[in-house]
């Protein structure tokens, strides 16, 4: 699918995998709406790639709808990447046997609200706008790529909330792709492994920690970089025969319990 002259929407687009995807989509000729809560970073990236920044909290339906509308007003919206998300780590049961030490339920709900419900909300609204596009030669009106995680399959101790949210993104891939086929929209999911993003910090200690983490990767024995993930994200958008699929990009890692 050719996205030259189209618009694209990337949530969580101000940093990490989202920013790398925004740059690569812009290089393919799309005008990218960088949707994020980080205004300073988002505005700087939008200026760099000739795009537009939109302040979006993916738990706010009105903000999502405004960003989708803005993208569709620039040019036909043909590409969407759902990269916004948060992490959380806590054991299900505390060590002291007290109810108050059990997993924070509000934290669980928040992770689900952002990572899963937010992804679906963006998907349903963006797909609605895409459904108005003129189809290409394959009858395609647009494509959506959602970001999951290998934690959807290999969730570690303490990852109940995060794995639940990303497992939900994986689980909705095929049924939503089947729904959207009726209006000529493809949907795929990319599941990253251990990726070198700012979450690990900076400096010698952070580099040593990342090197240790990389030892658990099958090959190559290092963390992935955002551009490696973004290239697969862009492939799911531009490859007209890729649909309803979940692709792990993880160096072959299978996460241990801890």
Short description, anyone?
With 258 residues, the protein is an alpha/beta fold. The chain is built from 8 helices and 7 strands.
Features of the shown structure:
alpha/beta, single chain, Rossmann fold, oxidoreductase, seven-stranded parallel β-sheet, 8 helices, 258 residues, 15% strand, SDR_fam
Question: Overview of this structure, please?
Answer:
The protein has 258 residues and is of the alpha/beta class. 44% of the residues lie in helices and 15% in strands. The chain has a seven-stranded parallel beta sheet, sandwiched between helices. Helix 2 links the parallel strand 2 (31-36) and strand 3 (52-55). Helix 3 runs parallel beside helix 4 (105-130) and helix 4 packs parallel to helix 6. It comes from Nocardioides perillae.
Chart the SSEs and their pairings.
Layout: E1 7-11, H1 16-27, E2 31-36, H2 39-49, E3 52-55, H3 61-74, E4 77-82, H4 105-130, E5 142-147, H5 151-154, H6 160-181, E6 185-192, H7 204-214, H8 226-238, E7 246-249
Parallel strand pairs: 1-2, 1-4, 2-3, 4-5, 5-6, 6-7
Helix pairs in contact: 1-8, 3-4, 4-6
What is the CATH third-level topology name?
Rossmann fold
The N- to C-terminal Cα distance equals: 41 Å
Mean pLDDT equals 97
Q: Got a strand count? A: 7
Q: Tell me, what is the CATH class?
A: Alpha Beta
Overall domain count: 1
| CATH architecture classification | 3-Layer(aba) Sandwich
Uncertain spans, ≥5 residues at pLDDT below 50? none
GO molecular function, one term: oxidoreductase activity
Protein name: NAD(P)-dependent dehydrogenase (Short-subunit alcohol dehydrogenase family)
Family: Belongs to the short-chain dehydrogenases/reductases (SDR) family.
Keywords: Oxidoreductase
């Amino acid at each position: 699918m050719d996205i030259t002259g189209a618009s694209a929407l990337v949530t969580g687009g101000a940093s990490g995998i989202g920013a790398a995807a925004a740059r690569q989509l812009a290089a393919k000729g799309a005008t990218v709406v960088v949707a994020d809560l980080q205004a300073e970073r988002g505005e700087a990236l939008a200026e760099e790639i000739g795009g537009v920044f939109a302040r979006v909290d993916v738990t706010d339906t009105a903000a999502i709808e405004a960003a989708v509308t803005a993208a569709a007003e620039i040019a036909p919206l043909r590409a969407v990447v759902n990269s916004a998300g948060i992490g959380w780590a806590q054991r299900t049961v505390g060590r002291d046997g007290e109810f108050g030490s059990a997993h924070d339920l509000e934290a669980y709900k928040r992770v689900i609200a952002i990572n899963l419900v937010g992804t679906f909300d963006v998907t349903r609204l963006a797909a609605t706008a895409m459904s108005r596009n003129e189809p290409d030669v394959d009858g395609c009106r647009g494509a959506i790529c959602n970001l999951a995680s290998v934690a959807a399959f290999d969730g570690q101790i303490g990852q109940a909330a995060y794995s639940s949210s990303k497992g939900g993104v994986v689980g909705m891939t095929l049924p939503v792709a089947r729904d959207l086929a009726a209006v000529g929209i493809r949907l795929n999911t990319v599941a990253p492994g251990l990726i070198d993003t700012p979450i690990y910090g900076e400096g010698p200690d952070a580099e040593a920690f990342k090197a240790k983490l990389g030892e658990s990767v099958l090959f190559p024995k290092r963390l992935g970089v955002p551009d490696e993930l973004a290239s697969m994200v862009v492939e799911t958008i531009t490859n007209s025969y890729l649909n309803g699929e979940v692709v792990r990009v993880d160096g072959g890692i299978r996460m241990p319990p801890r």
